[in-house]
Amino acid sequence: MINLGILISGRGSNMESILKFLIQDEGSKVRPKVVISSKPEAEGLEKASKFGIPTSVISNKLKGWEFDKEIIGILQQYDVKPENGLVCLAGYMRILSSEFVRIYKLRIMNIHPSLLPSFPGLNSQKQALDHGVKITGCTVHFVDEGLDSGPIIAQKHVEVLETDTYDTLSDRILEQEHLLYPYCVKLFSEKRLLIQDRKVIVT
Ligand code: GAR
Hints:
Blueprint: E1 2-8, H1 13-24, E2 30-37, H2 44-50, E3 55-57, H3 64-77, E4 85-89, H4 98-103, E5 108-112, H5 124-131, E6 135-142, E7 152-159, H6 166-189, E8 193-196, E9 199-202
């Protein structure tokens, strides 16, 4: 079994899609254990409680490694450990310290609203519109020490329409995110992700 910790900062719709999927997935090998937010006002906290998942908020007085040490302490408390756990970043808007990444090596996933390596960082949908690309999408990847640069697990493409605004494009990407992230969590739990250098092979 895999014990899952989810890190959020806001709305938490990706978190919700994972939790919904896990409830419906008979024989799932994933146990959601805790949702941790970097912001006390995150809407996702209430959503997590409705699923009966314990939640926790990290004090924003802490910085850098101190902040992440607090998260790791909570993950350990809920038995989400490097040997049995998976940490999903779901709209988590902080960069993880390299210590955190090293401790949970290849056990932290992130979802990003572009086809990486294009448009990393913030406002990826706006970056895509401004650049004039015809196709964008979303990516689930393992987190490494760089910015949105870790090994790519899976991607879904979304066509950019001439009439698209930031909101319409973001909504269509989000629909795909909600399908992609639970699928990747399932692949991980079934040990179907083989990592060779920076390539992830789905077996
Ligand atoms: C999602 O679109 C996610 O891909 C993006 O934030 C949104 C969070 O929505 N994440 C990033 O941009 C990370 N760099 P949610 O809170 O409803 O899941």
